[in-house]
Amino acid sequence: MREATLWTLHLAAGVVILVFLSIHMGIMHLEDVLTALGTGYRDALGWASVVMRNKQLYFTITYVILLAAALYHGLYGLRNILLELGPGPTAVRVIQGILILLGASLFVLGTIAAIAAYVR
Amino acid sequence: MANGSQTGQIGLRGWVYAGRFGLERYAYTLHRITGLGLLLYFLMHICVTSSRALGQAAWESVMGFLSHPIFRIGEFLVYVAFAYHALNGVRLILGELGLGLGNPVRPEYPYPIAHRRQRPLFLALMIISGILILAGGWDFFVTKH
Amino acid sequence: MCQRNEHSGQALSDEIVREVVFRVQRYSPGQDRPVTREYRVPVTRGMTVLDGLHYIRDNLDATLSYRFSCRMGVCGSCGMYINSFPRLACQTQILELNSDLVDVRPMPNYPVVKDLVPDLSQLFAKHREVQPFIIRNEQELEHPTAEFLQKPEELLRYLQFTYCIKCGLCLTACPTVATDPRYLGPQALAQSYRYCADTRDAGAEGRLRIAAGRDGVWRCHLAGACSEACPKGVDPALGIQLLKRLAVLRALSLKKPHSPAPVAGKRTGVERRPGIPQPPPPTVESR
Predict the structure, then answer these.
(1) C109 and C134 assigned to the same domain
(2) In this predicted model, what pLDDT tens digit does every residue of B40-63 receive, in sequence order?
(3) Which domain holds residue C19?
């Protein structure tokens, strides 16, 4: 049942990403559309608005949630693709080890950056 | 053997094309490609945006470097990939849990195909995806140069 | 020599209505790579691709090898890759292909034995691997006394998947099978679901351990090509998705295993109506 749990998490992470990445993409790439519709704020990538978001607990928490969900969803998907290339048992173990290591280290990096930016 | 390998498998080419199949098989291929693209971007994105923890100077030098038109176009491709992968993903989550596929039926000719019952949903999602891509394109290339 | 086709009202006759070119992939053991040969085949109404191959073998090239048996879509022997689609040769009308060229190749994703004959042993091995039989821990299976009770709507939950003829066309269509030799594939997984969904069965847990393992249902991504290729309307993709749902519900403990359908009890208080003959004696010794 281990594989069933991993797959269910993949789907659940997909739903989490759908919600939070839509917000992220809306703020970053549809700002003019949203402004035209009467919402949103300008210059999402300017230092002032970056600091503004960094200092809000809401953005820091959702950032870490999105980071975890997206890393899991993406690396599980990559594992699917790699396993479907038909590697041998040793190669499977190596692939999984590398993916877990990669995911864990990027999660730590992203979380440290988010916390550091919040407390600055 | 005759098809190239011991097992006769088509190989990687089979992920892309193996005959005249319906839309869903090509949606699968595109889902893989966009997924890989998004993952590659996302891994770099984590490293790049972490520079905000180092202060304004570091952030603005990174953003200045990334304002080159090549990166802008690359970013738009990432946006397009997201719009497709997310909305096709909605269909896949429903379908892979057996939702919207209907129940098994007696196989009477012409044979029903369960995932075709999801076609209207698929097309509706692709229309939404297209609208999002157009809106994003307006934002990327018209209002910001 | 003229029959009337009851459905279309058209005459089935020996009249040649078209001439097509059969481009057939040929391969013999020991050869480095397959070659293609072309044969001109006169087509009459109602002629199938299998009939065309018969014509070639009888009139043009007696060395052509292909596998067939029933000629009517029941045995699953003549699966081939015809004009870029996996089909049964016996069920494919040449005229319906609507092309002057009929391209015939052995099914991809299988080793080739000779010409159009694929080696299906992997398909059968995977089929056996998923435990495609009723499992319950009781004497009743070995020494039956009566039938198991099952409602018609319970039958309908798996009936569609019982129509599989093991032709293997779905594995030709599947993108995962193209690269992953260990993937159980649409045929075996649909059969796994067929038995898991059977109310008479009590072996879903052991069966799911195989079908929901690393080489099982999770390698399917709903490309749906298997269902399009299936010549019997089995819809293996539907079976796999339902099996995924079952595996997820079991993993999250949202669905408890059902107790298997009971054995029909002895009828009491019922008398045989007069004039109805007695059934023949049982062929199996009951204990």
Answers:
(1) no
(2) 999 999 988 888 888 888 888 888
(3) 9-118
